């Protein structure tokens, strides 16, 4: 009897995964034709084909698969985001990037936290948790946009670097706040700060170590015995980076991001791979990242409680406006002003203020909150959904227009 139930469950899970894949492909096609971000279509498909309406995709029945999609998907996308960053360019604007991705995350979380406490009547810890979720920008949405809109290289690398780094910082802050809520522990500011530093350090060390080992084994060096399997090796690097870091008490998200950063700049470590193998690996990783994006946003859509969205919709909309027009400008003004050497122009600062799409990592973190039924999860899910839809529809769709008006396009 147990075997029959397991077989039925496995078959249903396969159908759910196949349905997500098909919906993802259709959503990508529609997004391309309508020239709007595909993740918006994925979200709407998740709502339409989830438990709320057609119930074709009900991932809640498979909690392990749900966690796998959210955890591995977000980890792999962070790895890809890290690999896009070039350290030579990053070195020129490192202070701005560091400030935006650390201080900027904490400022955004604080502003949204206070606003959520006042507008949504959430407890302060839960409000800060919501702030930590939406504080990150989205490399998975930014990178495709910047492939179409040719922004000045230094400005582009700064924004992409910030989005990748602040995903890691946002995930770390989220993990810390979530632990204090679920474990009912009240930590002092010093204890929380020390915990964050420890998580970051472990993530840095583990990510660097695992990436160097994996890249070396797939390189052209004499010890590069797995050169033909460089693409598959990237999966192992992501999984081992995340899991080892988490088990040592570090940040798995920081670890995979650093692993991607090391892998993407392997030449600085005197490590090389053959061109044809490199191209094969790029295609492989882009495919996995695309599947991860599809799955995360469709799953997030299935988690949405439509009644909660209707109930808290206008309040969630107000939080989204505060995020775009208050929190982000304050963060950019403060962080860029502290980096005197970068000499950012007024137009470059304005462009940074506008480009701050909320996307994959906030979606994944929101999914974790919903899966764990954290008090206030319906409000959090609705607000994150609103922030994602508005920032992607309004900001991502107008990046080219804003860049042209501000004269920050590449010559």
TrEMBL record:
The keyword Transmembrane applies. It holds the Pfam family Na_H_Exchanger. It comes from the Bacteria. Keywords: Antiport, Cell membrane, Ion transport, Membrane, Transmembrane, Transmembrane helix, Transport. It is a multi-pass membrane protein. The keyword Membrane applies. Residues 25-405 form the Cation/H+ exchanger transmembrane domain. Its main location: membrane. The chain crosses the membrane at residues 13-32, 39-57, 93-112, 124-143, 164-184, 196-218, 316-338, 350-370, 376-396. InterPro entries: Cation/H_exchanger_TM, Na+/solute_symporter_sf. It is found in: Cell membrane. This is K(+)/H(+) antiporter NhaP.
């Amino acid at each position: 009897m147990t075997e029959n139930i397991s077989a039925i469950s496995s078959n249903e899970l396969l159908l759910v995964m196949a349905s997500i894949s098909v919906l993802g492909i259709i959503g990508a096609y529609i997004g391309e034709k309508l020239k709007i971000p595909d993740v918006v279509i994925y979200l709407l498909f998740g709502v339409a084909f989830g438990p709320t309406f057609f119930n074709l995709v009900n991932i809640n029945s498979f909690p392990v698969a749900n966690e796998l999609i959210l955890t591995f998907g977000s980890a792999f996308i962070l790895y890809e985001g890290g690999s896009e960053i070039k350290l030579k360019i990053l070195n020129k604007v490192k202070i701005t990037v560091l400030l935006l991705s650390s201080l900027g995350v904490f400022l955004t979380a604080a502003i949204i936290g206070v606003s959520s406490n006042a507008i949504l009547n959430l407890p302060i810890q839960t409000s800060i948790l919501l702030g930590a979720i939406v504080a990150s920008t989205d490399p998975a949405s930014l990178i495709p946009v910047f492939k179409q809109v040719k922004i000045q290289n230094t400005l582009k690398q700064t924004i992409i670097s910030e989005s990748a780094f602040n995903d890691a910082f946002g995930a770390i802050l989220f993990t810390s706040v979530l632990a204090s809520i679920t474990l009912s522990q009240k930590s002092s500011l010093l204890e929380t700060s020390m915990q964050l530093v420890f998580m970051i350090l472990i993530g840095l060390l583990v990510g660097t170590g695992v990436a160097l080992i994996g890249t070396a084994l797939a390189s052209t060096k004499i010890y590069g015995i797995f050169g033909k399997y460089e693409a598959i090796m990237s999966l192992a690097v992501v999984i081992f980076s995340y899991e080892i870091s988490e088990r040592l008490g570090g940040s798995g998200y920081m670890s995979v991001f650093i692993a991607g950063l090391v892998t993407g700049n392997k030449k600085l470590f005197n490590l090389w791979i053959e061109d044809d193998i490199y191209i094969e690996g790029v295609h492989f990783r882009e495919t996995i990242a695309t599947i991860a994006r599809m799955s995360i946003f469709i799953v997030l859509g299935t988690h949405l409680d439509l009644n909660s969205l209707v109930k808290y919709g206008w309040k969630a909309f107000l939080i989204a406006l505060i995020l775009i027009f208050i929190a982000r400008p304050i963060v950019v003004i403060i962080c860029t002003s502290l980096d005197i050497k970068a000499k950012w122009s007024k137009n470059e600062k304005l462009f940074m203020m506008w480009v701050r799409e909320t996307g994959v990592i906030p979606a994944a973190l929101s999914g974790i909150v919903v899966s764990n039924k954290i008090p206030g999860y319906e409000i959090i899910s609705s607000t994150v959904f609103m922030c994602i839809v508005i920032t992607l529809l309004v900001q991502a769709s107008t990046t080219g227009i804003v860049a042209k008006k501000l004269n920050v396009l590449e010559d």
